[in-house]
Amino acid sequence: MTDESTPTPPHLIEFDTPRLRVRQWRESDLAPFFALACDPQVMEFLLPLPTRAESDAAANRARALVAQNGWGFWAVERKDTGEFIGFTGLNVPMATLPFSPCVEIGWRLARASWGQGFATEAARGALQVGFAQLGLNEIVAFTAEGNVRSAAVMTRLGMHEDVAGAFDHPAVPEGHVLRGHRLFRIGRAAWQATRSASE
């Protein structure tokens, strides 16, 4: 793993978007995180549906990585209500993928928060952190082949599908319907062009 792929800022990074606060995890996030993880529609393209212990462990791993590195999969809350609605952020995948080493962007939101642009808004902030603060040259995203909602967010972020980079995710059992994954990429220059076009 190169230094470029695993930047370590000297302080905890948190940020706000117009409607959201993207922050370190809290104990109070664990119950609503488990609730969204038990929603079959939220988890339709993910494996497996967790137990409460597994859900808490996943949240605590995310919290530990944010504390260690200053960045990671952050908790996302609405500014207007203070409600935890899910997570977004940057991550170095645990599995060795065909395009490793890499930093991925990802998100998972409660179903009640779908269709309001929250995933795109939070992820745009995460891209800003990755390119402007961490100095990454590229960020990737990937999702199961049938997950058109996540693919649409990736496209809205200015990411481009690497059709030739489609792959079978090693963490998904062979023969499983979710094993095939699409790969999206965005480099620093493309991100800067996307930002300039929106200003």
TrEMBL record:
Keywords, A to Z?
Transferase
What the entry lists under InterPro entries is as follows: Acyl_CoA_acyltransferase, GNAT_dom, N-acetyltransferase
Q: Does the keyword Transferase apply?
A: yes
> What Pfam family does this protein match (any one)?
Acetyltransf_3
Name any one GO molecular function: acyltransferase activity, transferring groups other than amino-acyl groups
> Please, which domain of life does this record's source organism belong to?
Bacteria
Q: Where is the signal peptide, in residue numbers?
A: none
Residue stretches making up the N-acetyltransferase domain:
20-179
- Quote the protein name from its UniProt record: GNAT family N-acetyltransferase
